[in-house]
């Protein structure tokens, strides 16, 4: 049974479960409550999707899309469904939904001193296996440094900034930097 994307809204019965997954899968600096996400969706800023297999919520994804960029804001799966191929299936569906757009993602920079360095390295390997390539750019927001990866089209930092900078999240002021020496 393929993964089904269902739009999450204020009437969705799985809001609490989605919020729990967000709290468990993301550091507190990156956590954005389902209420905050739905408010942004109401403003047309993002899309919030529940990921289901046979009517069971297995994960979620949040995207910010513009005319030429699809930015993978969040992708997370509940613990029992991790490592079972759902992430690759979700990425395949996102590619099929947005074939004409640059698809971009950011993930925490690898850091030998970080408590979750192995998780950071796994995320980078996952996105590489899904077809994302390094862009040579990073960004920092809310006290965390990230690497930007992209697929489908050549990466353009100006286009990425134009897509991400106007996102109206309190305290969200991204700073961009080159990862190339």
Query: Number of DSSP helices?
Result: 5
Work out the radius of gyration.
Answer: 16 Å
Mean pLDDT over all positions? 94
Shape: globular
- CATH class division: Alpha Beta
Task: Specify the structural class.
Answer: alpha+beta
Could you state the order of secondary-structure elements as H and E? EHHEEEHEHEEHE
CATH 4th-level superfamily: Gcn5-related N-acetyltransferase (GNAT)
Helix share bin: 25-40%
Question: What's this, in brief?
Answer:
By secondary structure, the protein is α+β, with helices and mostly antiparallel strands. It contains five helices and eight strands. Helix content is 29%, strand content 32%.
